[in-house]
Design goal:
This protein is of the alpha/beta class. It has 29 helices and 15 strands. Helix 1 crosses helix 5, helix 9 packs across helix 11 and helix 13 packs across helix 15. The chain starts with a helix and ends in a 5-residue tail after the last strand.
Length: about 700
């Protein structure tokens, strides 16, 4: 890559050229973002994964522009119209919109009105009119009469069509209209006649308008969804009079007959060609910005959900609640393996309360259960109350677990591979239990779009959404690290440098040869080359390995440094890890050499303090209000316990223990102005909320975080 690329990337990201150069070199050399951010801090100047991701995205965009430029230069060259000046302007342009403006006059056209007029030989007449120096334009037009152009009026009309197209393709004109859109564009919607009843959920947008520059992303996504469903008509328009006036200032010279024709052609070109073209641009760019904001919020929600506190390796009884079909119960060992399943019927219509109670108590005792996980769907509250009222032979914690996506998992190929002999209800209950043990390990098996924490996730650019969510999952998995001897292939797939095939090979090798005893054994896995090992090894853990560094985030390439530290202190690596006082005696500057600097050495010391620690918080039990089970039990003014289940641009949704989640609007989140709900709340955060509004007809609940005692 040449130096101008580095300059452009530095300008767009605000990161120094040298850092960008090293980062691109690493990426081009096959290094992953998690690996670079964790193990190549000296090279990048300690850039984090977000900054590295931004560099990669900006670099990919520049590569796209470069590819497009090459195609444009080739096309114009083939037409014999590539002047030195035009070539220089195209080569110097790195913004796609400006590039397309330069190309527009040379773009192969479909058969427009202007193109037909050119075929009829009217372009010279258009040039005469555009020059605005002739006083006898009718006489000039008479020279262009042919069988296809029967009179002067037709000649002038065709010439004006050509001028209108010139105006629409003029770079200055397009930028002028863009500025008008930027300053005054209004996005407006109307309901399609006869669709009022079908589109009732869009009633807020049946007759609605708002300045585009102030329109929130969720509103843009809502109206575009309504448009796609055939319920709404959406238009983006600037101040037409001002736009036309500014264009005429560019093109109209004087006040003669030709100038009047140019003025009319400008007005026609703006209304028929230029405004629709720029409206399409602004519709696309506003949708793209709305997509980016929705994807950002969704990715952050997914990140928080994936990094939700795990219960850890404990024996769990999980229940997928139900009324008529009963509650599916499964017992899992500490690794999440299925030990037993059956169905109990504590609720109507069967209402076998005593039989269900005996069975649960027996299962808790027989399988030495330490915690109970209950899905939060239908019959979830009733099941929770039933379970918590029972007595067991030991202390058992009870947790309510989100079911979002469990049904997707239970019917998936992944679930069929794991449990080929079980039905979907058993698989769903297992997923609920495993989410309690380790949310990250279980949720990676589900398409992130199905986790249920998005905002219009089906309306945004699906390719961009997938890329963002895949990267989010990758960051989360690598931030936590995985036990290579217990991780599923789905979890291993997201480890830096692996991917589906190597993940599968690791699982098969483990099945055939038993647990890995040391990290270096991974090199025996088929297709595990030196590069893949380099990228993945630091994120794979081997608990109880002979070398304690194999269960840490210290990379194998840095083991010699730790060995030297231990030798210098006259102790073993195990003693170095266990004794914090020993580490205080180290002079880290002594170990700086080559590509190892203080960032790497500081990371090593941090890791030796808490080797292989899980960065996630500890899980907490929370109880909902026992008196509130349905919407009918709610009253304004009530203060309730809740759990944040989704964060959007306009607020957050909170589970208060009933079927319907309540909304805390952004204006009800704090006594100060906030621009982003994430400033106040996090996914799965336990909160106290006050009920401030109940719409029983639309089954909507308004909540507040303000003035809650």
């Amino acid at each position: 890559m040449n130096t101008p690329f580095y300059k452009l990337l530095a300008q767009s990201t605000g990161i120094a050229e040298k850092q960008i150069e090293k980062t691109i070199e690493l990426l081009e050399g096959g290094a992953t973002i998690p690996f670079i951010s964790r193990y190549r801090k000296e090279a990048t100047g300690s850039l984090d994964e977000v900054q590295i991701g931004n560099i990669k995205e900006a670099y990919d965009r520049l590569c796209e522009v470069a590819k497009r430029k090459s195609s444009i230069l080739e096309t114009i060259g083939e037409q014999g119209k590539l002047t030195d000046e035009l070539k220089s302007r195209i080569e110097a342009c790195w913004e796609m919109t400006a590039l397309e403006d330069l190309y527009l006059p040379y773009k192969p056209r479909r058969r427009t009105r202007a193109e037909i007029a050119r075929e009829h030989g009217l372009e010279p007449l258009a040039k005469i009119i555009m020059a605005q120096r002739s006083d006898r334009i009718a006489a000039s037009a008479a020279r262009f009469i042919t069988p296809e152009v029967p009179d002067e009026e037709c000649a002038l009309k065709g010439a004006c069509d050509i001028i209108a197209e010139w105006v629409s393709e003029n770079e200055r004109a397009r930028n002028t209209v863009r500025r008008c859109f930027e300053q005054s564009a209004v996005i407006a919607t109307k309901v399609v006649k006869g669709k009022e009843e079908e589109g009732d959920k869009y009633r807020d947008y049946f007759e609605w308008s708002e300045p585009l520059r102030r329109c929130a992303s969720h509103k843009i996504l809502a109206v575009r969804r309504g448009e796609n469903e055939g319920i709404l008509r959406v238009a983006i328009t600037p101040d037409d009079d001002k736009a036309t006036e500014r264009l005429q200032q560019i093109f109209v010279k004087g006040a003669g007959e030709c100038s009047e024709l140019v003025a009319e052609a400008v007005k026609d070109g703006y209304k028929r060609l230029l405004r629709p073209s720029i409206e399409t641009e602004f519709a696309a760019s506003s949708k793209e910005r709305a997509d980016d904001e929705a994807i950002r919020i969704f990715a952050e929600n997914v990140r928080q959900l994936l990094l939700a506190p795990p219960l850890g390796q404990k024996r769990v009884l999980a229940i997928d609640p139900g009324f008529r079909t009963g509650c599916k119960v499964v017992c899992l060992d500490a690794q999440g393996n299925l030990l037993h399943n059956e169905t109990i019927y504590p609720h109507p219509p069967r209402q076998d309360v005593s039989g269900a109670a005996r069975k649960l108590a027996q299962l808790v005792e027989s399988y030495k259960i330490e915690a109970i996980a209950i899905g939060n769907g239908t019959a979830g509250r009733e099941t929770e109350q039933f379970v918590t009222n029972l007595r067991y032979d030991r202390k058992v914690q009870v947790f309510v677990v989100s079911e979002s996506g469990a049904s997707i998992y239970s019917a998936s190929k992944v679930a069929r591979e794991e449990f080929p002999d079980q039905d979907v209800t058993v698989r769903g209950a297992v997923s609920i239990g495993r989410r309690l043990i380790d949310p990250l390990a279980e949720l990676v098996k589900i398409d992130p779009k199905s986790i249920g924490v998005g905002q219009y996730q089906h309306d945004v650019d699906q390719s961009k959404l997938k890329k963002s969510l895949d990267r989010t999952v990758e960051f989360c998995v690598n931030a936590v690290g995985v036990n290579v001897n217990t991780a599923s292939k789905h979890l291993l797939t997201y480890i830096s440098g692996l991917g589906p095939q190597l993940a599968q090979n690791i699982v098969e090798y483990r099945r055939e040869h038993g647990d890995f005893a040391r990290r270096s054994d991974l090199l025996n896995v088929p297709r595990m080359g030196a590069k893949a090992f380099e990228q993945s090894a630091g994120f794979l853990r081997i608990p109880h390995a002979e070398n304690p560094l194999d269960n840490s985030a210290v990379h194998p390439e840095r083991y010699p440094i730790v060995e030297q530290m231990a030798a210098d202190l006259g102790c073993s690596i195990g003693e170095l890890i266990e004794n914090k006082e020993l580490k205080k005696g180290l002079d880290l500057k002594k170990y700086i050499a080559g590509d190892v600097g203080m960032p790497t050495l500081s990371d090593i010391i941090d890791e030796l303090d808490k080797p292989g620690r899980d960065p996630r918080r500890y899980i907490e039990v929370m109880e909902f209000d026992a008196k509130v089970k349905t919407l009918d039990d709610l009253q304004e003014g009530m203060v309730l316990n809740g759990i944040v289940t989704n964060i959007t641009q306009f607020g957050c949704f909170v589970d208060i223990g009933i079927k319907e989640n309540g909304l805390v609007h952004i204006s009800q989140m704090a006594d100060r102005y906030i621009s982003n709900p994430a400033e106040v709340v996090a996914m799965h955060q336990q909160v106290r909320v006050r009920v401030i509004g109940i719409d029983r007809e639309r089954r909507r609940i308004q909540l507040s975080l303000k003035e809650v005692s």
